[in-house]
Amino acid sequence: MKEPVAMIDVVLTGDCMTKLDSVPDSSVDLVYLDPPFFTQKDHKLKTRDRTTEYSFRDIWESQSDYLTFLKDRVAKCREKIGSTGSIFFHCDTSASHHIRCLLDDVFGEDMFRGEIVWFYRRWSNSKRAPLPSHQTIFFYSRTEAYQYHQIFEGYSPTTNVDQILQRRQRDAHGKSVYERDEAGEAVLDGGRRGVPISDVWDIPLLNPKARERVGYPTQKPVLLLERVIELVTSPGDVVLDPFCGSGTTLVAATLLGRRYIGIDNQPEATALALGRLADPVRTSSELLRRGRGAYHQADADSIRLLQEIRTVPVHRNKGIDAVVPTPKGAKPVLVRVQRQNESVLAAAESLSVAGGSKQSAILILVVVDEGCPSRLFHQVPSNVHLVLSTGAAFIQLLRRLEVTVLSRDEANQVEEGVHTIHTVLDSMKESLPYHIPSASFKNLGITKGMKR
Ligand SMILES: C[S@@+](CC[C@H](N)C(=O)[O-])C[C@H]1O[C@@H](n2cnc3c(N)ncnc32)[C@H](O)[C@@H]1O
After folding, report:
1. In the CATH scheme, what is the code of domain 10-151+197-278?
2. What is the full DSSP assignment across 308-320?
């Protein structure tokens, strides 16, 4: 059982070994720690305006000194974690091979849940070895009954729409084939939420101009911490970072509605963390938002639009850019965004051809060409619905078609849930700032293609 926490949403200054004494046992849901890595360096960095320099020491007498220091503190952290809680230990190749064994000793080998590789790109020289481009985060749980909230990622570029929409079964030879009903029709499956998150996390390093960058050496991105926190905690849970530095974990916890306890032995670090908490900032990564190499068929504007309307992108099907997440067994809703320099008619034809073979699919073309004469809309294939280039219009259309949609967040959290369209769509609407002003479409509303 988790004990109530007397002291939360605090940042404490001092050695975490002693400061942890003021945290009640079994009271936290997640410990994330990013301690010195045994780099045998002093880490120093100046703020952007060059007025302040932050630093911390990572120089040790010996490796065994370092490991003893860590083991004492990790063992103490373990006492603070409740029965459904977890620990995420961030390290790099300087000592990761020892730290895995240390965590096995403290938590038990059976409590090992994963080794996350945080992968990032950097430009640097590495003469006689591969360029280091990752760090490691070990994930252990306190008990078997740990919280875990699956996160789903987009499909790979080689996944086609059929693989996403249709249920599979094994044939007589054990080969995986698409399931057919008695009439020979493909059987629809859910599975439109993407694939479960892998243990390789491709999250860019903070760029020098990122708003969240505060000039603290080895500052981690809020996005990375948000992912950790979302995976193993719920809103209201308590996140502890005993080596909090500039307070990234605490900022991420706040942004996600979790509570926090931060500790660092440097007063400059805790002051900085408190400053960040007064105005928590997350820098969104354009690279991540778009996905590396994603949307091979769609162009940049289409990508942006599709992401705003929370569809699940698909890559391999000419004519189809995305699938709307709907409950199991519901009709597939397939979307294409009109390209620049592509007529509405050509875009609709392309979607109609690509989507026409998918079992009773609802096909939606997002029209972005403001200058297109509306009479042309009547020539659009009858199985294609047109919608204006705004998220709100898209939602109205889904509502009219009585499509039940799972927003990506909800699809991530709910396994089999069927949501009422109003609740889900209203929550989607709040996250739809995107709008292409479109005078000529003002009165068009939502149009269904007419028979030619
Ligand atoms: C790698 S940095 C953490 C960076 C942090 N994750 C961020 O995003 O800003 C490690 C931190 O551990 C702190 N530290 C080192 N020894 C400590 C100790 N015994 N107790 C508490 N903090 C300590 C250092 O001051 C430093 O801020």
Report:
1. 3.40.50.150
2. HTT-EE--S-TT-
